[in-house]
C-alpha cells in the first residue's frame, strides 16, 4: 500500500488533482478551501455573515 492510498481510508471525500501546473494550484484549491472554512465556521456556531473583530474603514474625502 502506497502512502497516498492510506489517506483514502481516513476521509469521506478526497479531491485528487494530478499534473497541475504550479501556477494553477492556488486557483484550483481556493474554492474548496473557502467551502471548508465556511462549513467549519457553521459547525462551530460562528455567524459567518458578521465576523467578529472586523473593523470597517471608511475614507472621507
From TrEMBL:
EC numbers on record: 2.6.1.16
Coiled coil: none
Source organism, top-level taxon: Bacteria
InterPro entries the UniProt entry points to: SIS_dom_sf
GO MF, one annotated term: glutamine-fructose-6-phosphate transaminase (isomerizing) activity
Reactions catalysed according to its record: D-fructose 6-phosphate + L-glutamine = D-glucosamine 6-phosphate + L-glutamate
Any GO BP: fructose 6-phosphate metabolic process
Enzyme class: transferase
Gene3D superfamilies in the cross-refs: Glucose-6-phosphate isomerase like protein, domain 1 (3.40.50.10490)
PANTHER family hit by this protein: GLUCOSAMINE--FRUCTOSE-6-PHOSPHATE AMINOTRANSFERASE, ISOMERIZING, GLUTAMINE--FRUCTOSE-6-PHOSPHATE TRANSAMINASE (ISOMERIZING)
Record protein name field: Glutamine--fructose-6-phosphate aminotransferase [isomerizing]
Species the sequence originates in: Bathymodiolus thermophilus thioautotrophic gill symbiont
Amino acid at each position: 500500500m502506497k502512502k497516498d492510498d492510506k489517506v483514502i481510508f481516513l476521509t469521506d471525500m478526497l479531491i485528487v488533482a494530478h499534473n497541475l501546473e504550479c501556477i494553477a494550484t492556488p486557483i484550483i484549491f481556493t474554492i474548496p478551501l473557502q467551502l471548508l472554512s465556511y462549513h467549519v465556521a457553521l459547525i462551530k456556531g460562528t455567524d459567518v455573515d458578521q465576523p467578529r473583530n472586523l473593523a470597517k474603514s471608511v475614507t472621507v474625502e
